[in-house]
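User: Please predict the structure of the protein below. I'd like the answer in structure-token form so I can feed it into my own downstream comparison script.

Assistant: Understood. Taking the following sequence of 85 residues as input:
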Amino acid sequence: MLIGELPGVQETQLGKDLIQIGKSEGRTEGKIEGKIESLLLLLNARFGPLGVELQQQVESLDSSEKLDRLVLQAARVDSLDELEW
């Protein structure tokens, strides 16, 4: 770096911290998206094509723990009505 030149954002501690936070949030969002896809795949395989409303309900879920619970339920229940949302 030249004298008098400001460091790039990635070179500052704040910049590094913000990048790390962004990466962490991105991983979390990616995991949730993957669980949503898995739940939709399982529900479609077990119960046939889902209605638009149910698909939107699944796609709006944002809790990893809730998605895990629903995937396990979907593997065991005999009908969609038995799922505990």
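That's the full token string. The radius of gyration is 20 Å.
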